[in-house]
Design goal:
Blueprint lengths: L17 E5 L9 E7 L9 E2 L4 E14 L2 E6 L3 E4 L5 E16 L7 E2 L2
Antiparallel strand pairs: 1-2, 2-7, 3-8, 4-5, 4-6, 4-7
Amino acid sequence: MEGFVIDRTDGRDDGEDWAEDYEELPGGAAVSLILESTSKEGVGPRLHKHPYAETFLIRRGSATFTIAGETVTGRAGQVLVVPADTPHTFATGPQGYEAVHIHASVAFETEWLE
């Protein structure tokens, strides 16, 4: 096989209530990923920013995002793009949240603002 398969570090094969970070991916992928799934409401990171864009592919549920001081609700089936150096945070909605966060960098670089 020419591609790469990366398994979860916890060994589980379901997709509920977990998060996994992937950076320095093989094959020259040039992105880092966060895979997140939770059934809990109100979960999310503190206000922060990155020196590169971050793209959120929301697969299930919703989250309330604050991006550069503006509030938007992201729902399943939507894609949100946060430009480089833009402060952002989010909190998961009442039905939880499942998403892929794509960082346009081979490794995570985060500046925490609170």
